[in-house]
C-alpha cells in the first residue's frame, strides 16, 4: 500500500498503517486532534516547529498544526534508526556490541566521534562517520531495496550513498516518522524479529519519572536549514506514545531545546 493510499484527513495526517492490523480496512482510522497550544512551546523559545504524537491505546493522533506536521524534510541523524536496522538485516553488522568500526584517524569537532565504535556506542553519540561507513558497506542497491520495503519517507537515496540523508534527496515528514517508529516499536516491519529487537535495544533512552523515552535526535547543518529532529516513543505503564518533533535551530540553545520541548509537549498531552 502506498503512503498516499494509507493516509486520509487532517492534511493527510494519520496513516492507516498506524492501525494494529492493517488488513482490517473496515476499522475506523485513528482519531485526529489539533492542539494549537503546542505551537506556543516553539514560539516561546523564539523559533518555529511542529509536534506530532500517536497515543496508541487512545487510538489518537495529536498534532500541533495541520501544515508543518505534513511537510517532508531531510531526516539527518534520525535516519540512524533505519540505517542500523538495515545494517543488522544485511549482516553488515552482526553484533551491535562486538563488531568494531575503527576510527579513521580524522579529528572531528565532536570529540566522542574520534575513537573506535560499536553500533551501540555509535548511535549513542550519533557518530556520523561510522554510519557513513555502514551505508557504504550496505551499498546503493541494498539500501534502495530496504528503503522501499520499509516504506521509509520518499525512498530517494540520490545525492550520494553516504550523504543522501544529510544533504541529499531523502525526505520524511513527521507522520511518516511516527509511522516508521511505531512499526519498529511493534516489531511489524518486513525484516527479521532479531534485527528489530536489536535496533530497539540500541536506541538511546532517558527516564522521566515512571516513563522511559526511547529517542533519536537529528540536526541538519546550517546550509540545509539548521533543522532539528527528535523522534521516538514513550513507554509509560501500558500507555505507549509515539512522537516526532522538528524545529528550526537558528541558535545553539535550540539544539538542547529539541528534547526539552519534546518532553514539554509529551507532558502537555498526558503522555509523560
Strand order, sheet with most strands: 1-3-2-7-6-5-4
Radius of gyration: 18 Å
What's the order of the H and E elements?
A: HHEHEEHHHHHEEEEH
Q: What is the tally of beta strands?
A: 7
Give me the number of helical elements.
9
Structural class per helix/strand content?
Answer: alpha+beta
Helix amount = 25-40%
Instruction: Kindly report how far apart the N and C termini lie.
Output: 33 Å
Major β-sheet profile: 7 strands, mixed
Query: What does the average pLDDT come to?
Result: 91
Q: How would you sum up the global shape?
A: globular
List unreliable stretches of 5+ residues. Answer: 1-25
Proportion of residues in extended strands: 15-25%
Can you describe this structure in just a few lines?
By secondary structure, this protein is of the alpha+beta class.
Word description of this protein:
- This protein is an alpha+beta fold and 272 residues long.
- It has 9 helices and 7 strands, in the order H-H-E-H-E-E-H-H-H-H-H-E-E-E-E-H.
- It has helices at residues 3-6, 9-12, 39-43, 80-90, 119-124, 128-149, 174-186, 193-202, 252-268, and strands at residues 31-34, 49-55, 60-63, 205-208, 211-219, 227-235, 241-248.
- A hairpin with a 4-residue loop joins strand 2 and strand 3.
- Helix 4 crosses helix 6 and helix 4 crosses helix 8 (193-202).
Give me some keywords for this one:
9 helices; disordered N terminus; alpha+beta; 7-stranded mixed beta sheet; 272 residues
Secondary-structure map:
Layout: H1 3-6, H2 9-12, E1 31-34, H3 39-43, E2 49-55, E3 60-63, H4 80-90, H5 119-124, H6 128-149, H7 174-186, H8 193-202, E4 205-208, E5 211-219, E6 227-235, E7 241-248, H9 252-268
Parallel strand pairs: 1-3
Antiparallel strand pairs: 2-3, 2-7, 4-5, 5-6, 6-7
Helix pairs in contact: 4-6, 4-8
